Amino acid sequence: MTDDGGHEVGQDGGAREYRMEELARLAGITVRTLRFYRERKLIPPPRREGRIAWYDDHHLARLRTIAALLERGHTLTGIAELAEALDQGRDVADLLGVGTPTEEEPVRLTPEELAARFEGEVTPENLAAAMDLGYLGTDGDEIVHISRRLLDVSSALVREGIPLAEVLAAGERVREHADALAALFTDMILRHAPEEDLHRLRPLARSVVEAELSLALDRRISKRG
What we know:
Helix content: 55-70%
Radius of gyration: 23 Å
Number of helices: 10
Number of strands: 7
Strand content: 5-15%
Oligomer: single chain
Structural class: alpha+beta
Largest sheet: 4 strands, antiparallel
Strand order of the largest sheet: 1-2-4-3
Low-confidence stretches: 1-7
């Protein structure tokens, strides 16, 4: 079934599909370029119906991402590697967990928005490292960072000239210490309070860690002075 514009539409009126010529027009590229991207596996294969190839909004979003990344100086080879890393990324639902209490706010980003946050630092290696850490997950054509605070701080550090690879490596080491601290406070609280009090008392544990880190930084800065 098609709509008034000649697009193929699902029975529920939702998913739209396009022939190659229309997809190229909507993406602002030539049919020849679209074929080239398909041959380079920059976009997924279309749905085949006899001799007709049907493309959908996922293909259109990917083409717009390619255009945005090319404008930022990424090469087609680099974009292909980024696309492969994203396609292999974990679904964000696996990272966040359904119903798990958290004080962190997830952030949804397009690939080009992520590239803008970390200008020149979004490489396949850094993307894979962030996904391995569980900082990033995928949800369709979007990337989801599990914590706005971590996203803002890491992008601020990169703007200060610290390579993203070093920021991620530091994050991995901090994760190890944070897990140990979380275990320490969880065990202590559970020795004296019911399990349902864990969420209520977590701000106290966080305050202790923040204060101790602040004091430790004071000592480091004092020694270097």
